[in-house]
User: Fold these one by one.
Assistant:
Number 1:
Amino acid sequence: MSAGRLRFVAARLVQVLPVLTALLLIVVLLQQLMPGDPARVMAGPRATVEQVAQVRRDLGLDQPIFLQFWAYLTNLAEGDLGRSNRTGIPISAIVGDRAGATLWLMAGGLIVSTALAAPAALLMALRPRSVAARICARSLTILVNCPPFWIGLMLASVLALRTGWLPVGGFGETFGERLRSMVLPSLTIGLAAMPLLARSAAGSLRQVLAADHVTTARSLGITGWPLVRRHLLRNAMPPAVTLLSVQAAALLFGAVVVEQTFGLPGLGAELVSAAGQRDFPVVQALTLIFGCGIILINLLADLSVALLDPRTTWR
Amino acid sequence: MTLLAVDELRVSVRRRGTELTVLDGVSFAVGAGQCLGIVGESGCGKSLTLRATMGLLPPGATRTGGDIRVGRSGLAMVFQDSHASLDPTMRVGTFLADVVRRRRGGTRAAARRQAAELLAAVGVPDPDLRLRAYPHELSGGTRQRVSIALALATDPRVLLCDEPTTALDVTLQAEILRLLDTARAERGLGVVLVSHDVAVIRQVADVVAVMYAGQIVEAGPAADVLDRPQHPYTRALIGAVPSLDGPVGPFRPIPGAPPDPAVYTPACRFLPRCGHGDAACRGPVPGVHALDLRHRSSCVQHSTHHKERT
C-alpha cells in the first residue's frame, strides 16, 4: 500500500476518537435532555421526596456532569452498561440477547438492497433507452415514496397471509426458522433502501461510462462485459459505497420500525419499549451502540473506498 | 499502399432538438509509413474526425454519411490528455498485459513480458518497475508513452493521434513526436496526427490537411501546403505563429471567430474573416480532399491571389 493510502487510513482512524468522545458525551447528557426525572421514575410514583433524593444519590445523578461522565466511562471500560430500570437485568445481557435479530436484519437488508440495486443500476446506465430500464426507473420512483412499514405490511399480506409460505412475525429458534422469518423483514428493509442506491449507482456508472479512460479502453477493443468488469465497476464503486454507508444509518433506524412491524426481538424494538417506559440506562446504552455501529460502518466504507481508489491520500 | 481511406465523412450533432452537420465531406487517406497531419483551430472538427474514424463518437454525435475503409489493418488511438485517458484504478502493467493478451493470447506471464518489452520500446526506463505503477504515479511524458504502448499493443496498422503532445512541455513534445516517427518508420504504421500547432505538424507530417469549420479547406504535401499555402485561412494560420528566426514583429492573430455550426453554408465559411472575398465566395465553393498528393484548396480566389503574389 502506498504512503498516501497508509496516511489516509491512519488519519481516518484518528478521526474516530473525537467523534466517539462526542457520542459518549451526548449519551451521558441524554439523561439531562430527556423529559422526565430518572430518579423519580425509578423510585416509583408513590415515593417521597426523600426516597427520590436517595435514589438520585444512588445513581450518582447529584454529581457534577463530568464526574458522571467519568463514572460512565469507567463502567463502560469494564464492560458494564448498567442495569435496566424496569427489570434490573444487566444491559449487556439484554444486548447479547437482542443483538442477533438486529444483525440478521441488517445483513439481510444489505444483501437484498445490493442484490436488487446492482442489476437495476447496470441496466439503467448501460441500456438507458431500453423498455426494461424505463420500467425500472418508474418502479424506483414509486418505491422511493413508499414508507418501510407500509412495504412491510404489503409484503406480509401478499407473501405471508395469502399463501402461508412465510411467517408474518417472530424470530424462530432453529437456523432454518430464523432464515425463513428474516425473508420478509429483509425484503422490507432492502426494498426501502434500494431505490436511492440504484439511482446513485446508475448515476456514477453513467459518469464513468462517459470518462475518457473508458473511451481509451473501447479504442483498444475492450467492450461488453470485460469493459464493465475491468473498467466500469471499480471506478463507479466509491460513490455507491459511500452512499451505502450513509444509508446504513437510515437502515439502522429503519430497523426500529421494521422490528416493530414484524415483532422481531431486536435492539430497535427494545429501544422503542425502553424509551416508552423511561428506562434511561437502556436508552443510553442502545443509543451508544447504534452510534458506534454508525461510526464503524462509515469507517469501513471510507477504508474500502481507499482500497478501491489508489489515488486516495489524506488532504 | 493505402491503409485507411475515409470518404465524404459526415457527422451530425443534436443540439436543442435540431440536427447540426458539424463535419461535411471530409475525405482523406493514409498509406503505410505515411503521416497525415490535420491542422486547424479549436472546434473545427479535427478531433471529431478522428473519433468518427475510430467509431467512438461522443454521445449525441452520429455519423450520417461517408465511408470508412480500413484494409485488414486495425486502428488504434492516442489521446490528448494521458491523465484522464488511463484508468486510474488499474496498474499500468495490468492494463497493458490485458490488452496484449486480448490481442495475442498466450499466458499471463508471457503477456506481462511483452508488456515490459512494449514499455521499453516506447522509451520508458525501468519498465518492470513502471508496470507496477498506477497512472497517477507517473509523469506526464511517461503516461503518454504508456498510452502509445497501449495503442501499439493492439498491433495496429494505423495510429490516430489526437493532439498527443498538447499537454506536454516542448522538450517532451519533441521526444514523443520522435517516438511516433520511429514507430511509423519501424512498423510501417500509417499515422494521422491532429494538432492545432502548425509547428508540430511541420515536424512530422508528410501530407497536411487544413480544416476549417468542419471541412478540409486545403490539402497536399506538407512542404507545399505549409510553405506555399493557397487558402487565406492556411496563410493566416501559419502567419499567426510567431517566427523564432524571422524579425520580431507584432502577433498577427486571425480576426473574428469561427462560425457556429448552426450557420454553416455551402459558401466559403472563412469569408467573414477573410480580407480577399468577393461575390464568387458567396457561391458554393469546391470541396477539397486529401486522398492523393495533389495540392488543392477550396479558395475560389486562389488563382487571383497567386497572380498578385508572383
Note: The longest helix of chain B spans residues 170-187.
Number 2:
Amino acid sequence: MLAASVIVAVTIGPAPIAPADVFASIAAHLGFGDPTLTTIRDGIVWELRMPRVLTAAAVGAGLALCGAVMQAVTRNSLADPYLLGLSSGASVGAVVVIVLGIGLLLPLAAFAGALAALVATLALAMSASARSGRGSRLDPTTTVLAGVAVSSVFGAITSLVIFWSATGDSYREILNWLLGSLAGTDWSSVAISGVALVAVGVPLLASARTLDAFGLGEAGAAALGVHVARSRMLLLGGTALLTGALVAVSGSIGFVGLVLPHAVRLVTGPGHRALLPLSALAGAIFLVWADTAARTLFDPRELPVGVITALVGGPVFAWLLLRTRRTA
Amino acid sequence: MSLDLSRVRFDRAGRTIIDDVDATLPAGALTALIGPNGAGKSTLLHLIAAVERADAGELRLGDRPLDAMRRRERAKVVALAEPQAEVDGRLTVEASVALGRTPHLGAFGVAGPRDRAIVDDALAAVGAASFARRPLDSLSGGERQRVTLARAIAQEPTLLLVDEPTNHLDLGSQFVALDLLAGLARDGLTVVAALHDLSHAAAYADHVVVLAAGRVVAAGAPADVLTAELVHEVYGVRAEVLVHPLTGRPLIAVASPGVGAAPAGPAAPVPAAAPAASAAWTPAPADPVRRG
C-alpha cells in the first residue's frame, strides 16, 4: 500500500504523468531498460516528485515512530515530537547552521536543538508537577503545556534568525519551518531522512518489549529486568536524533507523531511489537497523501503540509485531551 | 532458596528508610512482612526486586549475591507483584500476564509455545483463565489483583515478592489471594508478602518479619512474634491475642487506646489463651480453613 501510494502520488501534479511513466523512469535510473520519457518528464518524476514523495514517506514514518515511542516512555498519551517542543528545537538548530553556511552539520545541529528542547520541556514539566504536589509523576497536560512554552520560544528564535539573515521572502521561509513543508526537497533530503530512519528506527523497533514493560510503570519495568533510567535516556535520545534529522529536511510538521500511533492502536491494541512498525507504515502513507494534497489542492500555490496535518491532528488532539482529563 | 539480608541500608533525601536490616527469609515458605505505614515494607521489597539499589549491605538468594547479578538475570529469579501498578487498560489479561516473560525473552526473543504454556499455567493458577481475553479495564479490583499475581508467576521466579496482596479486596477475595500465596509457598516458592492485617499474617505466614522505622524489631514464627506487647509497641494500639476458633492460629483483637473500657492502661497485655481453652470450638486446629 505504501509502494502503491508512492507511485500514485508521483503521478499526481500539474504535469500529467502515467503510472507506467513512473515505472519507466525508476527502471531507467536503476539501470534497467532505456529511458523512454522526455528529459523534462523524466526530470519531473525523478528530480522533483520522486524525492519529495520518498522524503514524505520517511518523515511520516519517522515522526509516527517517534510519537509512539515517546508516548510509551513518558507514559503520556499526548506525547509527540511537535507538542513537546522537539521539532521547534530541531528547527532552531537547523536554521542556525544553514544561516552560518555549515550545511554538513545540519542533522547534528538539529539533533542538538531537539535534545535541548526535550530537556527543557521535561525539566519545566517536572518542576511544575513538583510544585503542584503531584510528586515526580509527570502530569500529561502539564507536560504538554511545558512543550507549548518551549515551542513558542524556539519558534520565535527560528523566526528571528531567518528574519535577520534572509534578504528576500523571509515570511514564506519562516512559515515553512514553523508549519513544516516538503517543498524543495531533493535526493539529499531522502538520504538524510532515510538514513536516520533506518539507523534510529531499527533500534527503536527492537525496543518493543522494553516499551511494553514501561507500561507497568517504573517499578514494574525495573522488576522485569529493564534498566529504566538508561533505557529511558537512550529511547528519548533516539527520538531526539531522529526528529532532528527529519525536521532538518521538512521543518516542524505537527501531529503526525500524535495521531498515527493512536489510530493504529485502535486496531492493533497497545502491544508495541505490532504498534511500532504499523505506526511507521501508516505515518509514511499518511504524510505522502497529506503532502500530495498540500501541493495540489491550491495549485499552483502550495500549502505548507503542516497545515493539512494540523487540520487532521488538532481535532484528534482535542479528543485525546478530553479523554486524558477524564481518566486522570 | 532462602533470602538473606545482611546490614541492608537505604537512604533517600537524607533520611534513612531502611536501617541496617538483617533477616533470613526461609526457602519454600510464606514470609509476612508487617509493620506500620512508612516502616519501609515496600521499600525493602523494591530493594530486593532491584527497583532501587541498597546503599549498603548484602542481599543473597541462596548463595547468589543479588546485586552482583545483571538486571535481566535477577528478574528471572525475583518477581514483584505490586497491586498499585498502573497498566494500559486496553491490554488484554493474557497480554498483560505475558509481560512476565520479558526477562526470559530479551529484546529479540520471540515468545514460543513454552512461553505461552507458562502464561496459560499462570492464568490457571490464579483462576483467571476464564477472562484471559478481556481487556484489563473491564475487570474488578480482585480480578486485576489476580492478573498482577499471574504476571509475577509467569516470570517463573524462585522468590516472589507481593506488596499488599489483599489491598482493596473484599473479604472472600482476600482469602483467595492468601490461599494462593500459601499454596505457591507449599509448592516450593519462597514468598514474601507485605501485609497490613496481622490476623492474615498469623493465619497464613510460616514466618513473620516485623519492620518499624526501617528496622527489624522482631522475626520468627507467627505465634512467637505476634504478641500483645509487640502489637502495642509497634502500632500503639491495645491488643489481645486470642486463639482463632476455626484455625487454632493466633487471632489478634485490637482496639485503639480510647475505645472500650480498658481495665488497666493501654499496655495491659493479656496472655494468649492456651489452645486447650478453646479447643471445644476449634474443629481443625492444625490447618487454616481453605476456601474454594
Note: The interface with chain A takes residues 46, 49-51, 71-76, 78-80, 82, 85-88, 90-92, 95, 99-100, 102-103, 105-109, 155 of chain B (CB under 8 Å).
